[in-house]
């Protein structure tokens, strides 16, 4: 079954028709650009650095993260624009959590159908509410990695794929990336 059909199963089951699904290229990561992205993580604006297995340093070294992405031949972006009060941190976390749950459901369905895959989203993983970091991750198979932690400069990456990335007063767009291989494709880094 094509992955877009699998996504549509999630859309129907979760009433998520307002999420955009678009096939895009796998990012062509360079060490210099990825390092810039990791330096942004170190600034800890999102307050996730050193507190979450999906973020540095817990997510692993940058080279390993880049290698994981290079194993995949296909990518999709899933995103949703929401009207929000940017000062409402609980509301922002809730909306981010909805997207991460959709990504998990999609990845799990892909796995059930024989598609090797991984997913990333804005910020740290929120599956457990409060991450066990630095203690062992309780649900590594449900972890959603951070886009930035993997060295992806999201704005440039989306624009390279014809998707406008903008900041607007009163609105936030939440992005998720799913990397996958077709059932018969071998993952090669």
Summarize the structure.
The protein is α+β, with helices and mostly antiparallel strands.
As a whole number of angstroms, the C-alpha radius of gyration is 16 Å
Number of strands: 5
Number of helices: 5
**Low-confidence spans: pLDDT under 50, at least 5 residues?**
none
Average predicted local confidence, pLDDT = 93
**N-to-C series of helices and strands:** HEHHEHEEHE
Protein name: Metal-binding protein
Organism: Methanomethylophilus alvi
InterPro entries: DUF2284_metal-binding
Structure report:
InterPro entries: DUF2284_metal-binding. This is Metal-binding protein. The protein has 189 residues and is of the alpha+beta class. The protein has one domain. 34% of the residues lie in helices and 17% in strands. The protein has helices at residues 3-14, 31-42, 62-70, 89-112, 154-160; strands spanning 20-24, 74-83, 117-121, 145-146, 171-180. Strands 1-2-5-3-4 form a 5-stranded mixed beta sheet, covered by helices on one side. Helix 1 packs across helix 4. The longest helix is centred in the middle third of the chain and has 24 residues, at 89-112. The chain starts with a helix and ends in a 9-residue tail after the last strand. The mean pLDDT is 93.
List the helices and strands and how they pair.
Elements lengths: L2 H12 L5 E5 L6 H12 L19 H9 L3 E10 L5 H24 L4 E5 L23 E2 L7 H7 L10 E10 L9
Helix pairs in contact: 1-4
